Amino acid sequence: MLKHTFGVKRLFWRIFIAFWLASLLVMIATGFVLVNKFSSDEYNKRFFNDVVSQAERIVWRYEQDLATSGGAKVKLKDWVNNKHNRDGHLIPMLIKNDNGKTVYHYRLNKIKLKDRTEQHVTGPSNREYQVHIRKPKAPRIYKQVLYRFQSLQFGFIFIASALVSALLSWSIILPLNYLGAFSRRYANQQEVAILPRKLIARGDELGDLALDIDFMINKTHAAASAQQQLLHDVSHELRAPLARLQASAALIEQKSPDSRHVKQIHNDCLRIDQLIQQILDYSKLEQGSPTVENCDLNALCQHVVDNMAVNYPGIPVHFTARGKIELAGYPEALLQALDNIIGNACKYSANGELVEVSTLARELSVVVTVRDHGPGVDDEEMSKLSQPFYRAGNQMHTNGFGLGLSIAVKAINKHNGELRMSSPDDGGLCVEIILPRTLP
Amino acid sequence: MENDKYKVLLVDDDITLCDLLSEFLQEDGFAVETLNSGDAAILRLMETDEFDTVVLDIMMPGMSGLDVLRTVRAKRHVPILMLTGRGDDIDRIVGLEMGADDYLAKPCNPRELGARIRAIIRRTQQGNSSNIVHAQLHGIVLDSGTRTALVNNIALPLTGAEFNALSLLMERAGQTISKQDMTQEVLNRPLEAYDRAMDVHVSRIRQKLAAVSIQDVIKSVRGVGYQMLTEPQLQQEKG
Predict the structure, then answer these.
(1) Where are the alpha helices (H) located in B48-108, listed in sequence order?
(2) Considering only CB atoms, which chain A residues are within 8 Å of B106?
(3) Structural domain that includes position A78
(4) What distance in Å separates the CA atoms of residue A67 and residue A75, rounded to the nearest whole number?
(5) For residue B147, which of A111, A436, B87, B234 sits 20 to 30 Å off, Cα-Cα?
(6) Are strands B140-143 and B134-137 parallel, antiparallel or unpaired?
(7) Are residues A387 and A243 in the same domain?
């Protein structure tokens, strides 16, 4: 799950990029419209102003020339070409008087008729003149837009929109991530935690989602505890008829001592009782955790090893403790794990075959190794061993239910530990229990 | 003949089971009376001393077996055998610490129940029979005739099982006695897996000795059993 945290596929980046792009597009479009509308109007106005002022000067000079001499045309050209007499660059234009006679012409012939437009000016003598000019053409709009966007203002807007988009993304993703982490935590620990009120009280869709998850967790928990309770109650209730059955069998036995079937009944009663006990142990491990205690692992191992001498008098169990090993944990669960694993080693060993148990302290974890010299387990079967009610197929043991190892695995998982099994080259089975020193 | 039979009080809320067990135990040679609630058991036990053993189910609705045990033990010394669930370690230890003599996992084979009752009766009546021993060590004086342990002429309040365990340890002072042997000799039964009875009895003896300032005289030998130190051994340990 971690490898996607920063990928483009993450919702955070998708929302961020979408909002950012959208806000940038809106800004560019707005800029475009503004430039298009106001800038070109302004340009045209300035252009015509320039044209009129230049034309008026030329007309004024023309009328002066006309009044003083006949060769007005030549003198006007000379006057215009003198840059002391003109204001700015020369605009291509053609000026005609009210008789249609050309008074002044500068480079307008290159411009097609359809690109021309005309203005009217009035000379000092109140005569009207037609001024032909090229239609004003504002420079390309995108150039203006780009020019505007290169400014510092735009830089600020750019950063601000990125920040706002990121903030928006976060505000959506943060509660989602929290909900995800929350449900993962719940799934791992099987404990009812309460979602923060703040999240539920949001009132928006995320609040609804939180409410739904809260509802789901409560439902799941209710279902799980109902199942645990049922298992527990059924197991307990089975014991009462079992006790009566045993008592009745004993009465039959008392009255006809040679009944061989009664022995069978007794054996099966014992077996059912053991199964009930294992189911109870298993369901107890599923239930909420008891308080964490400081456990002396060597003492727990020694305790279990001592008891093996009672149950399996023919199997020598050697215990080697290396150093003082203490860890935070649930002693009851650890005892069950050790009892089942060391018990299995003894069960699958023939009389006289050595079972070795040793402990080892590491910096952050502790390891219990249980090694037997029995028939061992096939590699492919090893992974199935911890499933409830699974029994290794190459064993014809009727003594057991296949629950032992699942109980052990559950107890070890409760400590965030790990169970490793391997087949040593010289036969038998080697089981390692690795437990962290502290619980998370 | 009727008067020679040992009298057993059977307390269990399961009426059918009580009837079946009572029938079995009567056939096995006991005089059995059954009661189906904790309150009734307390009333009956307070009014009479006639029972040789009480078999008490721990899991009972209302007043539990442990409540009965606590109330009865304060006034009566009748031997009590608890019936506990197989996995209920805590109940067992609490029960033994409250002064129960032994426990048996339920459901059980009634023959085993009969054997346990017999074992308890045999050991509470041991003192009444033969070989009276007077032992003395660390200032503890044992009189197996009267089944009392005296320290500075004051009697230690020991239960039957505790007295037997202490006298066995003193008899073989200096030797390590295995838990198997102790269970066999003190409780008259073989050691079971995860059997805490002997540990609880020994720890209770230690507490009672410590209360009269006798400390560290019983040593635990890890993985084996217990040892009562002789006086030179105790000097050495302390030195």
Answers:
(1) 65-75, 89-97
(2) 239, 243
(3) 1-188
(4) 13
(5) B234
(6) antiparallel
(7) no
Measured CA to CA, the distance from residue A206 to residue A208 in angstroms comes to 5
Q: How confident is the model at residue B1 (pLDDT cuts 50, 70, 90)?
A: very low
Q: C-alpha distances in angstroms, A54 versus A45, A64, A86, A126, A224?
A: 14, 16, 8, 17, 94
CATH number at residue A431: 3.30.565.10
Please say if the pLDDT value at position B63 is more than 70: yes
The pLDDT score that the predictor gives to residue A5 is 57
Tokens describing residue B61: 């609705």
pLDDT at B24: 93
Q: Which residue of chain B comes nearest to A312, CA vs CA?
A: B193
Compute the nearest-CA separation of B196 from chain A (Å). Answer: 11
* A247 to B24: CB separation less than 8 angstroms, yes or no: yes
What DSSP assignment string belongs to A304-337?
Answer: HHHHHHHH-TTS-EEEEE-S--EEEE-HHHHHHH
Chain B positions with Cβ closer than 8 Å to A: 14, 16-17, 20-21, 23-24, 27-28, 85-87, 106-111, 179-180, 191-195, 222-223
pLDDT tens-digit readout, A152-168: 777 787 788 888 888 88
pLDDT tops 90 at residue B19: yes
Subunit contact A243:B191, Cβ cutoff 8 A: no
Which alpha helices (DSSP H) does A35-94 contain, by range?
A: 40-68, 72-81
**pLDDT digits 0-9 by tens, B145-196:** 777 888 888 888 888 788 888 888 888 888 889 888 888 888 888 888 778 8
- Give the type of residue at A297: L
Q: Determine, for residues B86 and A273 on separate chains, whether the beta-carbon distance falls below 8 Å.
A: yes
- Summary mean pLDDT of chain B: 84
pLDDT in tens, B95-125: 888 888 888 888 888 888 998 898 888 877 7
Contacts of B110 in chain A (CB under 8 A): 246-247, 250-251
Of A288, A322, A348, which residue is a domain's last? A288
CB B113 within 8 Å of CB B120 = no
Quote the pLDDT of residue B126: 62
Contact A239 B106 (CB under 8 A): yes
Inter-CA distances, A130 with A63, A122, B177, Å:
15, 9, 136
Residue A298 makes CB contacts below 8 A (sequence gap 6+) with: A321, A324, A325, A359
A166 and A200, same domain (yes or no): no
Threshold 0.80, pTM exceeds: no
Strands (E), A107-187: 116-122, 128-134
Q: Where are the beta strands (DSSP E) in A259-316?
A: 293-296
Query: Which residue from B21, B109, B223 is facing A306, i.e. has the nearest CB?
Result: B223
Over residues B213-228, the pLDDT tens digits come to 888 888 888 778 898 8
Banded pLDDT at B2 (limits 50, 70, 90):
very low
- The CATH fold assigned to B130-238 is Arc Repressor Mutant, subunit A (1.10.10)
Q: Which pLDDT value is given to residue B22?
A: 93
Beta strands in A93-141 (DSSP E): 93-97, 102-106, 116-122, 128-134
Q: pLDDT under 70 in chain A at which residues? A: 1-9, 39, 69-74, 83-87, 138-151, 188-193, 287-290, 386-401, 440
Q: What pLDDT does residue B195 have? A: 81
Q: Same domain for A262 and A324?
A: no
- C-alpha span between A374 and A394 (Å, rounded): 12
Which residues in chain B touch residue A302, judged by CB atoms under 8 angstroms apart?
222-223
**% chain B with pLDDT above 90:** 15
